[in-house]
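Milestone M4 deliverable, item 7.
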Amino acid sequence: MTTFESLELTMPILQALNSKGYEQPTPVQEHAIPQILAGRDIFGSARTGTGKTAAFALPLIQLLINKQKLGKHPRAIIVVPTRELAQQISESLRLYAQHTKLRQVVIYGGVSQQGQVVSLRKGSDIIVATPGRLLDLINQKHISLHAIEHLVLDEADRMLDMGFINDIKRICAYLPEKRQSLLFSATLSPEIKKLASSLLKNPVSIDIEPDHSLDTYTREQVYFIDKTSKINLLEHLVQEERIERSLIFTRTRRGADKLVKALAKKGIMAQAIHGDKSQAQRLKALNQFKNRKLSMLVATDVASRGIDVQDLSHVINYDIPEQTETYTHRIGRTARAGLDGTAYSFCSPDEKSYLKDIQKYIGKSIPVGEHPYKMLTQPTETAINKPKRKKRLRSAKKATARY
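Output delivered:
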């Protein structure tokens, strides 16, 4: 059995892992850590919830503490697509490096840059950053990347989806040619492979559970329901399943806010987290949810990859996502680290085409659940895939008779 000790991690890191009860590395950690410690570039494909952050953070910390600090400039930079993910990785680094003297700074937009600038002036070994704010601070001469030895691009596919490709190229132009580069992506599209080939030198490819291969620990179920009855079904499931905490996804920001108000009327405390909320509001809601002061967190897909909550038992797709890959990213918030989880999806008549595409993508049919709000006939799987019959045209004589 592989252990963290057998991966030759140093004592300060092992002490931090032991304090959290981490004993056995996940497959992506087992494969990636030795290669990163050996100085190899990595092209990794691993979906969310597989322990990917520790897979690059642990060896990165070890490589940095093995070398003497040469100055105030950062030696490692981790670039991520969202503010939530930046915060999550920063928290993980703080945990893993708690017995070392490494310093880190997390920078992202949506808040004043002043505090981030002050932290940068004190010096840092690792920077965790979103692309836009990072480039702003580089252009303002607050950050120099000339001493960078290690680059991590996490969730590179998400960054491409959000239009950050040119920002990534500009950031890489500031980096030394001689460096170690690690690129992680949930999917392996042609665009991702092209980006990897331009940034990585003779990389080791690590492919752990492709994005469409879902974890058997996740129990999935779809409910066919009229749109106006979704709120009643949600209340019913919360009571019947005794759901104490759930992450609920809606398609739009307005839909998230409306759902929070509807839940409040039913005595269920919830907060929304989406792009229209300030960074302070989003972090407050997320922290309340993590600390169990809030039972329901309603989110748009801005949060589907940036939220890491321990022991999250349920994810609910209040709206079926339009993008097939988004489904796996959403339900990846539960059933993490080998724990059980449940993912419910509410499908209204206008969302059947999205569901069909999702089931084709994941290669299986999602089991249909029974519920008491049958305001429409629940279709079978055959009915979903069955093409609609075309209406017969009225004869010209009948048509003219009506006018």
